[in-house]
Protein backbone atom coordinates (compact mmCIF):
# COMPACT_ATOMS: atom_id res chain seq x y z
CA UNK A 1 0.00 0.00 0.00
CA UNK A 2 1.35 3.41 -0.97
CA UNK A 3 1.73 6.04 1.76
CA UNK A 4 0.11 9.37 0.99
CA UNK A 5 0.44 12.69 2.74
CA UNK A 6 -0.75 11.25 6.02
CA UNK A 7 1.67 8.86 7.70
CA UNK A 8 0.80 5.81 9.75
CA UNK A 9 -0.61 6.18 13.24
CA UNK A 10 2.08 5.88 15.89
CA UNK A 11 1.37 3.36 18.65
CA UNK A 12 3.16 5.57 21.18
CA UNK A 13 0.62 8.34 21.64
CA UNK A 14 1.05 10.58 24.65
CA UNK A 15 -1.99 11.37 26.70
CA UNK A 16 -2.50 15.02 27.54
CA UNK A 17 -1.73 16.00 31.09
CA UNK A 18 -4.82 16.34 33.26
CA UNK A 19 -4.48 19.32 35.49
CA UNK A 20 -6.36 20.13 38.65
CA UNK A 21 -8.55 23.20 39.07
CA UNK A 22 -6.75 26.47 38.78
CA UNK A 23 -6.22 28.43 41.91
CA UNK A 24 -8.03 31.70 42.10
CA UNK A 25 -5.49 34.44 41.77
CA UNK A 26 -6.21 37.67 43.53
CA UNK A 27 -5.78 40.63 41.28
CA UNK A 28 -3.10 42.80 42.78
CA UNK A 29 -3.53 45.87 40.64
CA UNK A 30 -5.14 47.77 43.50
CA UNK A 31 -7.83 49.30 41.26
CA UNK A 32 -11.32 48.87 42.67
CA UNK A 33 -14.47 48.33 40.68
CA UNK A 34 -15.75 51.75 41.71
CA UNK A 35 -12.63 53.46 40.42
CA UNK A 36 -12.83 51.59 37.13
CA UNK A 37 -16.47 52.56 36.75
CA UNK A 38 -15.72 56.18 37.62
CA UNK A 39 -12.95 56.28 35.01
CA UNK A 40 -15.29 54.86 32.37
CA UNK A 41 -17.95 57.46 33.16
CA UNK A 42 -15.34 60.20 32.99
CA UNK A 43 -14.23 58.94 29.58
CA UNK A 44 -17.81 58.98 28.29
CA UNK A 45 -18.30 62.48 29.69
CA UNK A 46 -15.12 63.68 27.95
CA UNK A 47 -16.35 62.22 24.64
CA UNK A 48 -19.65 64.08 25.09
CA UNK A 49 -17.80 67.34 25.78
CA UNK A 50 -15.57 66.89 22.72
CA UNK A 51 -18.66 66.20 20.62
CA UNK A 52 -20.39 69.33 21.89
CA UNK A 53 -17.28 71.39 21.21
CA UNK A 54 -16.96 70.01 17.67
CA UNK A 55 -20.63 70.81 16.94
CA UNK A 56 -20.24 74.30 18.38
CA UNK A 57 -17.15 74.95 16.23
CA UNK A 58 -18.98 73.72 13.14
CA UNK A 59 -22.00 75.94 13.85
CA UNK A 60 -19.90 79.07 14.43
CA UNK A 61 -17.89 78.47 11.27
CA UNK A 62 -14.65 78.00 13.19
CA UNK A 63 -14.36 74.52 11.71
CA UNK A 64 -15.40 73.32 8.25
CA UNK A 65 -14.73 69.60 8.87
CA UNK A 66 -18.18 68.04 8.86
CA UNK A 67 -16.81 64.50 8.84
CA UNK A 68 -14.72 64.95 11.99
CA UNK A 69 -17.73 66.51 13.72
CA UNK A 70 -20.00 63.62 12.79
CA UNK A 71 -17.38 61.11 13.89
CA UNK A 72 -17.09 62.85 17.26
CA UNK A 73 -20.88 62.85 17.67
CA UNK A 74 -21.14 59.16 16.76
CA UNK A 75 -18.27 58.23 19.07
CA UNK A 76 -19.96 60.05 21.94
CA UNK A 77 -23.30 58.41 21.13
CA UNK A 78 -21.83 54.89 20.98
CA UNK A 79 -19.88 55.33 24.19
CA UNK A 80 -23.01 56.60 25.93
CA UNK A 81 -25.08 53.66 24.65
CA UNK A 82 -22.43 51.23 25.84
CA UNK A 83 -22.30 52.89 29.25
CA UNK A 84 -26.08 52.55 29.52
CA UNK A 85 -25.90 48.85 28.66
CA UNK A 86 -23.23 48.31 31.31
CA UNK A 87 -25.42 50.21 33.78
CA UNK A 88 -28.39 47.98 32.91
CA UNK A 89 -26.31 44.83 33.41
CA UNK A 90 -25.07 46.08 36.78
CA UNK A 91 -28.64 46.80 37.88
CA UNK A 92 -29.78 43.36 36.68
CA UNK A 93 -26.95 41.70 38.59
CA UNK A 94 -27.81 43.68 41.74
CA UNK A 95 -31.48 42.75 41.46
CA UNK A 96 -30.58 39.09 40.96
CA UNK A 97 -28.38 39.14 44.05
CA UNK A 98 -31.14 40.78 46.06
CA UNK A 99 -33.60 38.06 44.95
CA UNK A 100 -31.40 35.23 46.21
CA UNK A 101 -32.55 33.71 49.46
CA UNK A 102 -30.15 33.12 52.26
What would the keywords be for this entry?
single chain; about 100 residues; mainly alpha; flat
Structure description:
This protein has 102 residues and is mainly α. It contains two helices and no strands. It is flat and about 80 Å long.
Structural class: mainly alpha
Distance between the termini: 69 Å
Q: What's the helical proportion of residues?
A: 55-70%
Tell me the fraction of residues in β-strands, as a range. under 5%
- Total strand segments: 0
Q: Flag low-confidence runs.
A: none
For the sheet with most strands, the description reads: none
Apparent shape: flat
How many helices? The count is 2
**SSE run:** HH
What's the average pLDDT? 84
Q: Radius of gyration over alpha carbons?
A: 27 Å
Short description:
It contains two helices and no strands. With 102 residues, the chain is mainly alpha-helical.
Secondary-structure map with pairings?
Blueprint (H helix, E strand, L loop, with lengths): L32 H28 L5 H34 L3
